[in-house]
Design goal:
With 188 residues, the chain is an alpha/beta fold. The chain has helices at residues 9-17, 81-94, 141-144; strands at residues 23-29, 32-33, 39-51, 57-68, 102-109, 112-125, 128-135. It has a seven-stranded mixed sheet, covered by helices on one side.
């Protein structure tokens, strides 16, 4: 499992609030930055409800910030963090965003297929706030819980931890004595 610590929406906003006068850059690969003329086209809130291969329901919320590079550069400098914060304020007026939602940045261009990435680190470099992005990944929640993935040959769920069966000790019964009850004797 990739052990990336996910950044929630409140933490993401707090990092931006610390640096309103800096220019915001996104690094999507080693030495690759989103073009300076990027736009934030939308901010989505996606409530996720899923059932994993072990039959366990999972729920969480994602806050997805979508970036777009115009075909023709329309700016020579990245937007300032203060402008990003004003976009966030407009969005949050119409759509209250879950402060605990996991943040993802959605981006792609002609040399990089569109995908969702996690903000992994915030770095101040001169007059820039650079958000380093880490790729999304696939995981098996059943294995993460200590089980195995899928079902066994009989179609039974095998992702839950195995519960140990209680052992019962068999005792030899002796024949009834004269002081014991017999069916129909009325002693009981």
């Amino acid at each position: 499992m990739n052990n990336l610590d996910f950044i929630n929406w409140q933490t993401f906003k707090n990092e931006l609030l610390k640096n309103p006068e800096l220019h915001l850059q996104f690094q999507y690969a080693e030495n690759k930055l989103v073009d300076v003329s990027y736009h934030i086209t939308e901010i989505k809130q996606a409530p996720i409800v899923s059932v994993d291969c072990g039959g366990i329901m999972n729920t969480w919320t994602e806050i997805i910030v979508q970036l777009w590079e115009p075909e023709k550069r329309d700016s020579n400098r990245e937007m300032k963090v203060s402008k990003v914060l004003s976009i966030i304020a407009i969005v949050e007026k119409a759509l209250p965003l879950n402060p605990l939602g996991t943040v993802k940045i959605e981006f792609g261009n002609s040399q990089f297929d569109t995908r969702q990435m996690y903000p992994a680190a915030f770095t101040v470099a001169e007059d820039n706030l650079v958000i380093n992005l880490s790729p999304d990944f696939v995981q098996c929640k059943a294995i993460e819980r200590g089980g195995s993935c899928g079902t066994n040959e009989q179609g039974e769920e095998c992702c839950a931890p195995v519960t140990e069966k209680k052992k019962v000790q068999l005792v030899e019964l002796t024949t009834l004595s004269a002081n014991s009850c017999a069916p129909g004797s009325g002693c009981c």
